[in-house]
Amino acid sequence: MLTQINQKYLKIVIFTLSLVPIFFIIYKIITNQLGPEPIKDITHHTGKWTLYFIVITLAMTPLKKITKLNIWINYRRMFGLFIFFYASVHLMTYVGLDYRFDIISIGDDIIKKKYIFIGFSAWLLLVPLALTSNKQMIKILKNKWKKLHQLIYLISLFGAIHYLWLVKRDLTEPLIFLSVILILLAFRFKFKKN
Amino acid sequence: MKNYKYSEITPEKVYIKRRRFIKSIGLGLGSLTLGSMSLLNNAHSLENNSELTSYKDITTYNNYYEFGTGKSDPYKNSQEFKVKPWNVSIEGEVENPITLSAEEILSLYPSEERIYRLRCVEGWSMVIPWMGFSLSKLLNKVSIKTEAKFVEFESIYDPTQMKGQRYPVLNWPYKEGLRIDEAMHPLTTVVTGLYRKVLPNQNGAPLRIFVPWKYGFKSAKAIVKIKLVRKMPTSSWMKASPREYGFYSNVNPNVSHPRWSQASERVVGGSLLSPRVETQMFNGYGDEVANLYSGMDLKKYF
């Protein structure tokens, strides 16, 4: 078994690896390697990594059950915070870089475009989870904490549907994300029954 | 905005000089500021959106699903595409149906440079120096019957060469259409080249249509058939999603699309700091074409 010190190092390694996608895009910006629509590239990159971290976060509980190792749970909250981090960079790219804080146009988009509506809703729902992700809040909220954080199930579906609704023609990738998320969610029900 | 005359566009030499000058300023300040970062330098280059989009962007950033759905797929997958021999038939409600080779068409109708804006339905735009001539010249050759009310364009179907056609992404072959008066409008162009060069395969070689006041997908590429018909044709995109893509598909900032903003657009080739640009009615060609639609509710006939 891993000692406590090793676990701490492992956490630092995982934290650093989780930052690679953001460093990757920053490197591309600085070296001018983005395509003819650089803002779109950043938006897509951060959006996709939000979905990857949703999948990673949701996979921790099933992995714990399958491997019968508790260690996975130690990283679940951190991965959850990376969902919030990438979702926020994604949102800020759209709000700040693309629309330059043009609140009227953005409000119009949220009302008229259902994929933006559901994506924005997903981000709003992430906020209370991010705010209550520290140890003190776990102690304060006790049983309610778990209930509150089950919101991630809904958020994950919103995220996948956001992607599904925005693609133009080829639905393959969003459907893969949606299926993987549904499978990971199905694990929850299975365990409850058992 | 008007269509650009060549004289209004910055000549390449001046443009390069200007870029060098801007770069040199950037490099000079580079030791003190972030000015050497290319993304900041580029911010100057698109201050007015009349600047030509670079040859590289025009030829590597394409929507041409016959060669794949990614923006760089057409460039990657079209290099082996054979454009010789190539025939275009003009048929349907005409007195003299005819089949012409691409070479015949090129020699019959000399191409001129036509600098037009391209607005994609996805919310991005380019300024392209096409080579071409008005489609009306070609249509006048066949004596259109009075029964003909619409023109249908058909692109080539060849899944052995176009791997995108092996999947039912769209209803192949690609079809598009115009009302006869739209097709006869002098701005409606048969494109034969760009940047004074032969038309690259990924841009629709050997011959494509370009309709500057409509969203890009209305301009069919690699056409093999022009058919004069009585009834409004159903285009491939209308078939795919009639709620999203109408027959007219005029650039219209007042008609919103479920996915993309049509009120504004991003100019391709801009930097992270270049702002969105307001989309103009009929893509800025309203003076020339608005009269084609007088009395029509363009929200209904989108």
Strand and helix layout:
The complex is a heterodimer of chains A (194) and B (302).
Chain A: H1 4-30, H2 38-67, H3 76-98, H4 103-112, H5 114-131, H6 135-141, H7 143-149, H8 151-166, H9 172-193
Chain B: H1 12-30, H2 38-41, H3 55-60, H4 73-77, E1 87-92, E2 98-101, H5 102-108, E3 112-119, E4 124-134, H6 135-140, E5 150-155, E6 175-179, H7 180-184, E7 189-194, E8 197-198, E9 208-210, E10 223-229, H8 236-240, E11 264-267, E12 277-278, H9 286-289
Parallel strand pairs in B: 1-10, 4-11
Antiparallel strand pairs in B: 1-2, 3-4, 4-7, 5-6, 5-10, 7-8, 7-9, 11-12
Describe the fold and architecture.
With 194 residues, chain A is mainly alpha-helical. Chain A is built from nine helices and no strands. Chain A has one domain (4-193). The two termini of chain A are 27 Å apart. Chain B has one domain (53-293): Sulfite Oxidase, Chain A, domain 2 (Alpha-Beta Complex). Chain B is built from nine helices and twelve strands. Chain B has helices at 12-30, 38-41, 55-60, 73-77, 102-108, 135-140, 180-184, 236-240, 286-289, and strands at 87-92, 98-101, 112-119, 124-134, 150-155, 175-179, 189-194, 197-198, 208-210, 223-229, 264-267, 277-278. In chain B, strand 1 and strand 2 (98-101) form a beta hairpin. Chain B is an alpha+beta fold and 302 residues long. The chains are: A mainly alpha (194), B alpha+beta (302). Chain A binds chain B through residues 29-30, 32, 34-40, 42, 97-100, 105, 108-109, 112-115, 165-166, 168-170, and chain B through 37-39, 42, 57, 60-61, 65, 69, 71-72, 122, 124, 169-170, 240, 256, 258-259, 261, 263-264, 266, 268-272, 275-276.
